[in-house]
Write a structure and sequence with these properties.
Strand order of the largest sheet: 1-3-4-7
Structural class: alpha+beta
Number of strands: 9
CATH architecture of one domain: Up-down Bundle
CATH superfamily of one domain: Butyryl-CoA Dehydrogenase, subunit A, domain 3
Strand content: 5-15%
CATH class of one domain: Mainly Alpha
Largest sheet: 4 strands, mixed
Oligomer: single chain
Shape: globular
């Protein structure tokens, strides 16, 4: 297969992000965040900004690089694989896309802040009851089911902390003190942003699933029973193989969904990819816990970081069930419309 310029740039960005996260988003960093009772790290966020990852798809006129969301699919995958506790998808992908397509007078100033790593944006999609990273956000974009967007600054939000399943991806209940500002942006751009949020979550989820697989393979390779590695037993091999196949397919579907998010069938591709990634993550979670035995349930062992991240991301921007239901409604409506013509 011939590698295009986009493929080359995407691969280079993925390699850059993997190296950066390997050094600065280690298990020790994640445990430090847990010990301090926080998720978002200004230090890690600053490094992502310095590397040009946060500003990647912001236009050059606003201090960005001017790439496309498709360039960041590998970056999102690595963020999931390293369980990075940062609102990268929300800020650097969805918000950058929406603000970049808007004629709102203040959009340029916010884009400049996003590109510099000086602003965090939270996203509420289709009236979701919980919002990730709202406590850290300077701005919130409420993307409605009617393809509208309202903008709220931090002082217009009333935030109630919740006991999040994944403390490294905290969610809160958010109420509004004002009506906010209706963002002037086309319905097509909003639909594109919705597809990006769902497809981006699929990329994050596929990355987390891959790490669960890696951790489990490492463990069953080292753990010995009856004088042989546990991983040498056929029953264990089959479970590992099942997860490996689904993890690989989830990755392919997620990366493809990002590429096609702007197409007419962008939502369908994103919904299908996220639903499949949810299935893969569930299988990886079940087998990871079973094959790790009792140690997998302990706080001291780091498996729980990815177990919780996989469950949290599975619920983000649509569960497997809700997305399949929405996909079915969309397809049936098209079939019904075609039949009536």
């Amino acid at each position: 297969m011939i590698e295009t310029d986009v493929d080359t740039e995407r691969r280079e960005l993925a390699e850059l992000s993997d190296d950066l996260l390997e050094r600065f988003c280690s298990v020790e960093h994640l445990r430090g965040c847990l010990d301090q009772g926080r998720a978002h790290s200004p230090e890690l966020w600053g490094r992502l900004a310095e590397a040009g990852l946060i500003s990647a798809i912001v236009g050059e006129d606003f201090g960005g690089i001017g790439l496309t969301p498709a360039h960041l699919s590998g970056v999102l995958y690595n963020l999931g694989r390293h369980a990075a506790p940062e609102p990268f998808l929300e800020t650097a992908v969805v918000a950058a896309t929406v603000l970049g397509a808007s004629s709102w007078p203040e959009a340029s100033a916010w884009l400049e802040r996003v590109a510099a790593g000086d602003a965090i944006v939270a996203i509420r999609l289709d009236g979701a009851p919980h919002v990730a990273f709202a406590r850290d956000a300077d701005l919130l974009l409420d993307i409605g089911q009617d393809d509208s967007v309202r903008v709220f600054t931090a002082d217009q939000l009333e935030i109630t902390d919740l006991d999040s399943l994944d403390a490294l991806r905290p969610v809160t209940a958010v109420a509004y003190r004002t009506e906010g500002v209706a963002l002037p942006v086309s319905a097509d751009s909003i639909r594109y942003a919705r597809a990006l949020a769902i497809a981006g979550a699929a990329c994050l989820l596929a990355g987390a699933t891959n790490r669960l697989l890696e951790l489990t393979v490492d463990y069953v390779t080292l753990r010995r029973q009856f004088d042989r590695p546990v991983g040498s037993f056929q029953a264990v091999k089959h479970k590992i193989a099942d997860v490996a196949v689904m993890a690989d397919m989830a990755r392919s579907a997620a990366l493809s969904a990002i590429d096609g998010a702007g197409e007419p069938a962008g939502f369908r591709r994103a919904a299908a990819a996220k639903a499949y990634a949810g299935d893969a993550a569930h299988l990886a979670n079940v087998h990871a816990l079973q094959l790790h035995g009792g140690i997998g349930f302990t706080w001291e062992y780091h498996l729980h970081i990815w177990l919780k991240r996989a469950m949290s991301l599975s619920a983000a921007y649509g569960t497997t069930r809700s997305l399949r239901r929405a996909l079915a409604r969309d397809l049936l409506a098209e079939i019904g419309g075609a039949g009536s013509r």
